Amino acid sequence: MSKFGALIMGPAGAGKTTFCNALIQHLRLNKRSCFYINLDPAAEEFSYEPDLDIKDLISLEDVMEEMGLGPNGGLIYCFEFLLQHLDFLTSALEPLSEEYLIIVDLPGQIELYTHIPVVPTLVKHLTRFGSLNVSLCAAYLLESTFVVDRAKFFAGTLSAMSAMIMLEIPHVNILSKMDLVKGSVPKRTLKRFLDPDTSLLDDDGSVGPLRGAGADPADKDSLMGGASFRRLNKAVAQLVDDFSMVSFLQLDVQDEDSVGGILSYIDDAIQYHEAQEPREPNDEVADYGDDDMMG
What we know:
Distance between the termini: 35 Å
Radius of gyration: 22 Å
Mean pLDDT: 86
């Protein structure tokens, strides 16, 4: 039996958990089943209580206290511990039918899936090497305010591309928190960031005038306006352009249509609807009758 899921990931502050909440709410409103997994061992507050929480297996606070590790080292230890106890996931997911959408909320330390192969190993267990056979789509969130600083935007885009290459599963990239840039960034300008290319740096007003050789190299403005910094940004942008892999969808979690639009892309990527049993007319009548009784 096939299973279907989405990995929600991206840098800290990108709005991953908020998106998970909006996704769960949308699924419930549309009478779809979901199974919410929290894999952030430091997360404490939830609008929707996770159906499976990594803190029931191991918590970052305990690891830092008992092992004497910092936050990043402790997080890596937690995931390595999870990989040694994959039955924690398997036993919870095996009973799920193909009607469920499994939502996996990951922590914001992007090195877990761009530098260290712990999340790629987890993905392989869920999709290919384990018994679960989950059809997964990765949803990578990048905060839309990054478009104001184009160097930061291309650094985030490069991280998204790195995750795409490392995970080797269907992937959607999302500019989150669109409500924060409405009115401050023209729509025509914003459209250019949905399919990023090097031309975005040619008219970058966020970088000041090029500083001369006599500028203080320790001064932040001199550093950010230096020729080497611009060459670095150009090289990163060119790398993104050469691969031509990354494009973005827009997300406003306050807009139900926006959340539904992102979900439709995820459904298409994992071929969710193709696997669902066709409903008989009698089923529709029964559902309608149930709704009337509830009303």
